[in-house]
Amino acid sequence: MLIQVSIFVLCSVAVLEGVVSAELDPRAADLTAFRKQSLDRHNHYRKLHGCPPLVLNDTLSAYAQEWAQEISLMPKPKHRPAPKYGENLSYASSSKAGYAENGEKSVDRWYKEISKYTFGEEPTKSGTGHFTQVIWKSSKQLGVGTVAKDGKVWVVANYDPRGNFKGKYRENVPPLL
Ligand SMILES: *[C@@H]1O[C@H](CO)[C@@H](O)[C@H](O)[C@H]1NC(C)=O
Ligand SMILES: *[C@@H]1O[C@H](CO)[C@@H](O)[C@H](O)[C@H]1NC(C)=O
């Protein structure tokens, strides 16, 4: 945990050095704040659907951080092979070397898939799996990991219990209140 945090901090410092600070969201440099922003954004959206709030879990966040660091070294981010928890990924890249994101951005991106989702039935198309996991009613705990470097931002969110179970969508993905 400690090692993971300091690696993140090192990356952030590297980003900060080369860039005019006004271009940066200073909040992105703070892993604790990033996690809280992600949690709050999840819970903001969950509330709109009458789903109970998630809580942050350090074990899950360490797990998420570990994978965020792994995928930041890969040419293309991919899911953990057989993750223990539900897992959403986000990867953003900018030509601006100092590009940074706060913890809300990736959740907003995932939630946008709502426009492709049909409530009240099992999904028949792909492309809404991030959205359904964000609001999945019976998920309770959240872990968040992120790495930012060279204008790129990776975010991993882990959910326990995991969402997106076949046959369970109607009860776990309720429409907007
Ligand atoms: C956090 O998650 C881990 C792994 O699922 C679990 O064992 C632990 O009880 C959780 N911690 C809390 C405070 O709920
Ligand atoms: C988001 O998380 C859920 C739950 O683990 C998973 O089923 C889904 O594939 C993820 N979505 C994407 C597109 O990665």
From TrEMBL:
InterPro entries: Allrgn_V5/Tpx1_CS, CAP_dom, CAP_sf, CRISP-related, SCP_GAPR1-like, V5_allergen-like
Keyword annotations from UniProtKB, A to Z: Secreted, Signal
Compartments it resides in: Secreted
Family annotation (Gene3D superfamilies): CAP
CDD domains linked: CAP_GAPR1-like
SMART domains documented for this protein: SCP
GO (cellular component) term, any one: extracellular region
Keyword Secreted carried by entry: yes
Residue stretches making up the SCP domain: 33-167
Pfam families the UniProt entry points to: CAP
Signal peptide from the UniProt entry: 1-22
Name listed for the protein in its UniProt record: SCP domain-containing protein
The species this protein was found in: Photinus pyralis (Common eastern firefly)
